[in-house]
Amino acid sequence: MALPRTAHVCQQCGYRAPKWLGRCPECEAWGSLVEETVGPASARTRAPALPATPWPDLPRAESDRTSTGIAEFDRVLGGGLVPGAVILLGGEPGIGKSTILLQVASRLAEDGREVVYVSAEESATQLRLRGERLGVRSSKLRVLAETDVDAAIAASRDARARAVIVDSIQAVRCAELASVAGSVGQVREAASRFVTFAKAEGVPVVLVGHVTKDGTIAGPRTLEHVVDTILQFEGDRHHAHRILRAVKNRFGPADELGVFAMTDEGLRAVDNPSEVFLAERPDAAPGSTVLPAIEGSRALLVEVQALVGEPAQGNPRRTALGIDAGRLALILAVLGRRAGLDVAARDVFVNVPGGIEVAEPAADLAIALSAVSSLTRRAISRHRVVFGELGLTGEIRSVSRVEARLKEAARLGFTSAVVPYSAATAVVPAGLDLLPVRHLLEALDAVGGA
Ligand code: TYD
Ligand code: MG
User: Fold this and answer.
1) From the CA of 95, which ligand is nearest?
2) CA Rg, the chain, in Å?
């Protein structure tokens, strides 16, 4: 069999060069050439031709999902593993990707499925050491300490694997490409071979991808289009909690979220995430508000903290952790103009503790009231939750999923909720008082601030 030829292809204009060049001679882009295989795909990498399927015979994804044995992981996937689905699990080094996937592999194997774990970064001995802490024993779980993609695929096929884990996609390589493991060309070609294998055999494949500090999965932007599902493992390595989020999912809802804790025996699902996020909430401290946020399909209570400093010399500092910096700027401008509060010249820090990101505008009112509470040094009642979008005229706008938010607040024992006026008609759980507000000034009155 002839070796497939490779070429360096400009990712901007498609120019092909036989060897790598720092700059494309055609469109003059720098660093745009990536090594690719060219010419007819070899028989090995081409998927077999399939006939078109009559509509009633189309497979139902729901019926043949495989549970990973870890309910929080299944939830994020949208109900379990789908045959032939390719999942990219991204996250910073040390966050726990190998740990959770070894746990998943072990559960699948205990359920009687053949699983192949391709360990391209760690030796079999290292993997065994981790596995012993996690209580892995099933002989259905096979480990292949190998970096060659075709060898990994061949071994998975020989083992009749029902799931394959590749740890990591940056550490495996295709022999035909001269470039080093982890380069864009290698990562893309390796991923596309695993995709071909997954689709042809109907086997789910999980690829581990390291994420750089700026949040992108190192190198393979293009990977995002090749895979079916992208899961992001987030959280602070120094804290026990980890958040697993689906950022893309062809087989389920995106933005679904699972919460785990890192323990001595690996990652454990957290059954009651709201309790975790509120566990260390200070008692009667100014600058803290509780927000019932919607994360994926469920409501979660999180704390929104703000610290408003003394008027600063020069440019005031604005720091937003866990919320969007643009929204913070907007909220502070509205507090200044519509409520006459002296915030423009002060340093303002906002943080959502617990490593969770709150992207929805429903957080606006919680951010605003935390900032006002910090400024006036008057604490907001411990038993109160707050949500609502803030408009530029200071109006409080309606948000989605009001009843889910109220229900979670009541479940955790909260007794009052400051909500947009439109929420006044919602079904309110027993024990919870609603304080519907039309405007920021009414909200400030309701909490007794400013
Ligand atoms: P790991 O899964 O190796 O991270 P990644 O594959 O994302 O780089 O997890 C690394 C950390 O997890 C490491 O600092 C040790 C810790 N850990 C535990 O706390 N408990 C455990 O049971 C295991 C296996 C790891
Ligand atoms: Mg690892």
Assistant:
1) 1
2) 26
